[in-house]
Design brief:
Blueprint (H helix, E strand, L loop, with lengths): L5 H12 L6 H10 L6 E6 L7 E5 L1 H4 L4 H10 L6 E7 L2 E10 L6 E6 L9 H23 L3 H36 L7 H29 E3 H16 L5 E5 L6 E3 H19 L6 E8 L3 E8 L7 H4 L2 H9 L3 E7 L3 E9 L16 H11 L4 H8 L3 H15 L4 H11 L1
Parallel strand pairs: 7-9
Antiparallel strand pairs: 1-2, 1-5, 3-4, 4-5, 6-8, 9-10, 10-12, 11-12
Helix pairs in contact: 1-2, 1-5, 6-7, 6-11, 8-9, 12-14, 12-15, 13-14
Length: 419
């Protein structure tokens, strides 16, 4: 696709963001391939609670990339100013183009790994890569902030699983390395130099392990105060030209909260505030978050007539989002005094969640199943996913086998029950 000119560039952006989430990076790579030839592409997008790091391209490169390679690039990158140079990636010095976006509040970085003999991209090409990445990350932020209950459930499950795996690995490696340190520090060893060297190596391994866990936590979580500040910024325009006075109570807690919890709390509070503002006699609304070790409590209190009901304040979207996170909505209405609405979301993911049969499916199989559950036929699914009809039939057969069902209808029913 020729990207010169505004119309082709807009068409390219549309072609990228219309893809299913798992296909956005491959499609972006294909669109940019002619403009900036590259062997592999990687992204670190902090909007995503469960898979912020993604790669696509040559396996010998993508298989050796990690968040440790992209985290410094995100921290040092300047939005709107693409960087080109040589980086040590996948065990070799490689030319790269790096673009950073602040279209999402916590930033996102895109890395294009190029051939060894590649010449730097011209300024116009680099600027177009930057523009496309800004469009894509804006789309990402919208998807995260307005996640449907099914996507939110998968995010919550994946985030909980990752947290448990990190904790288990941390404990196992810490125990092993601590044992090594104990042996190497023993006075029965005569070779002091060898002991000192081995001790340094073991200490470095422990530091690296803990740094990896902290890095993952920083991506998957955000400070509670920062999350509330983002909420406050989105609420102020709602009352800017209104006689209602908005009071904000930020959480007095230094802890972090999972990104999916923060996204959901913000969406719910905005929805509740809009409902509260529909009352004609409201002059003051107080919005506050309270955070304990176990839960986040988001409260919206008004001085209205006190006649709001649970049904009026909990439309389908609010109720479903809270249900996914095992949360609840409480309404305390006092006629003549006002209404207090509290949304409570647990901060701890259950250690023994009910098994999710959909976890056995790959991303493409989930895409096929989602469309199958909407009643789409094989031909329509093939057109939507840009694959052949025979490939759809293959995926459907695999889905039925993995889910242990015998018909498309049974698979669709299972999908609706879970998601």
């Amino acid at each position: 696709m020729q990207l010169t000119g505004s119309v082709p560039a807009l068409t390219a952006a549309y072609e990228v963001i219309r893809q299913p989430l798992g296909e956005i990076l491959p499609r972006l790579s294909a669109v940019l391939a002619e403009l900036v030839p590259h062997r592999a592409v990687a992204e670190l997008s902090t909007h995503c609670a469960h898979s912020p790091f993604k790669t696509y391209g040559a396996a010998e490169i993508t298989g050796r990339l990690s968040t440790a390679d992209l985290t410094p690039l995100l921290a040092s990158g300047i939005p709107g100013r693409p960087w080109q140079g040589t980086l040590t990636l996948a065990g070799a010095e490689r030319p790269a183009l790096v673009v950073t976006s602040r279209a999402t509040p916590r930033g996102a970085v895109l890395l294009l790994v190029r051939d060894a003999d590649a010449t730097p991209a011209d300024e116009a090409a680099a600027a177009l890569v930057q523009a496309l990445w800004d469009v894509v990350t804006s789309h990402f932020d919208r998807m995260a902030a307005e996640a449907l209950p099914g996507a939110l459930a998968r995010s919550r499950t994946a985030a909980g699983t990752r947290a448990r795996v990190i904790a288990e690995l941390g404990e196992a490696y810490s125990a092993a390395l601590t044992g090594v340190l104990g042996v190497l520090r023993s006075r029965s060893l005569d070779d002091a130099a060898a002991r000192a060297t081995a001790t340094d190596l073991a200490v470095s391994a422990l530091v690296d392990l803990r740094a990896e866990a902290e890095r993952d936590q920083q991506i998957a979580e955000e400070p509670a105060g920062q999350a509330f500040a983002r909420l406050a910024d989105s609420l102020r325009p709602l009352v800017r030209h209104s006689p209602v006075r908005l009071e904000l109570g930020a959480p007095d807690s230094p802890r972090t909260v999972a990104a999916d919890v923060a996204h959901t709390a913000r969406v719910i509070v905005r929805a509740l505030l809009l409902k509260v503002l529909e009352q004609e006699t409201v002059t003051r609304v107080h919005v506050a978050w309270q955070i304990t070790d176990d839960e986040l409590r988001a409260a919206v209190r008004d001085d209205g007539p006190g006649t709001l009901t649970h049904g009026a304040l909990a439309p389908g979207g609010v109720a479903e989002r809270l249900a996914v996170l095992d949360g609840r909505l409480d309404v305390d209405a006092v006629p003549g005094w006002g209404t207090t609405v509290s949304a409570t979301i647990p901060l701890r993911v259950s250690q023994d969640p009910a098994p999710d049969p959909l976890t056995a499916l790959g991303e493409r199989e989930l895409q096929v199943l989602a469309r199958l559950a909407l009643g789409h036929r094989n031909r329509a699914i093939a057109q939507e996913l840009h694959i052949s009809e025979s490939t759809v039939k293959f995926h459907v057969a695999k889905i039925l086998t993995k889910l242990g069902v015998e018909s498309r209808g049974a698979a669709a029913a299972l999908f609706h029950a879970v998601a």
